[in-house]
Amino acid sequence: MFDIYGGPVFGMARQQFLQAADILEIPTDQRDRLLYPKRAIAVTCPIHRDDGSTVVYEGYRVQHHLSLGPAKGGVRFSPHVDIGEVAALSLWMSWKCALMNLPYGGAKGGVRVDPYSLSPKELEALSRRFMQELIPFVGPHVDVMAPDIGTNEQVMAWFMDTYSNDAGQTVTEIVTGKPVSCGGTVGRREATGRGVTHTIVRAAEEINLNLAQSTAVIQGFGNVGSVAANELHALGVKILAISDHTAAYHDPKGLNIPEIIDYVSKHGVLKGYSSECLTDPNAILTIKCDVLVPAAVERVITEEIANKIECRILAEAANGPTTLEADAVFAKRPEVFIIPDILCNSGGVTVSYFEWVQDLQQFFWEEEEIISRMKKIMDKGFYDTVKSAKELKVSNRMAATCAGLRRVNAAKQARGLFP
Ligand code: NAD
Known about the structure:
By secondary structure, the protein is an alpha/beta fold. Helix content is 45%, strand content 16%.
């Protein structure tokens, strides 16, 4: 059924869904309705390149469900994107929003392109064309996009401007993660990494780990990874190793994170920062540390790596970093406390929700209020997950997925099936 959602990432999301549906004893005839996306849109995005040639990129938007409110989720620009991956990410968004009690269904979008290969002018043309193609299918109460891998505040500003020009009025609430200068909220850019760090603080309390004397390794040094690195560094955590798609660095004495952030703000990537502490990017996930933070792409923690990992907390900042086979290994390694992705990186969508609410009301909050409300919502998600994992005798991932799925299912059952 629904062969279009092929590939290993959707296979993984589907299997996790089935495991949770078994735990919740959801009748088999109700499962496809909960699993398969409501809508999937594929678009072609032609643009002029700077050399005068025309090139066409393929893009997708998958809206998993709209049973609790608008669909919500990021858009990634990545050469590896396919519709199965985007659909899987839309499912995870659904369970995440429901776990956090946000009034959204899950969505995700993607354009198959290497954004680093485009000039700023080409990136703007592609961003505008993608939004233009999706205008009939999105809206502030239908589907609200946000940044993800390869997109940022500037891309969101172009999305918002394109939608607003079509509407004939400024519609700031059409996307979140915009610059503060055009309807964004303070604290959104930092929200995901900040939330990741907050869940690490809570996990450390659970396992009696003194963070101020601990060590961490972070894969991915973009929006999420760099902010998490900075926040952990500020808490006194020694960051032993970091990597991005261009370089990896390891220093047993601890890396100078503020200096590296400054370097990346000027050069865009880690490459060229240092020749002394260069290391093998494939080796960093297995460096012995207290806190391991995959903050790049999905399916990097394989069965082999799960067997070798030497950390006490695995904080899944990225979406879907751990394969099903690796999860089976972790089931036999309870000494590793896993903060599952839908909990760990939920600070981003939580503050996106605040941005949407503020835009709808045209009434803006202070940063302290944003941070304290985000932590309150995430704390509830964290403690509910840990409690229900113990009660149900399941992993933190299953407990969190079940909580999200239970809420989506309850809404669908209460609303009934139309017509
Ligand atoms: P980004 O584009 O800002 O950064 C991605 C980083 O990963 C870059 O440093 C890139 O070089 C690096 N990377 C890519 N492939 C890599 C590889 N094979 N090995 C090492 N590094 C690699 O993206 P982001 O917004 O920071 O997103 C990172 C992860 O967090 C993604 O899984 C995304 O879905 C998830 N996430 C992001 C947000 C958000 O608000 N941006 C919210 C929730 C979850």
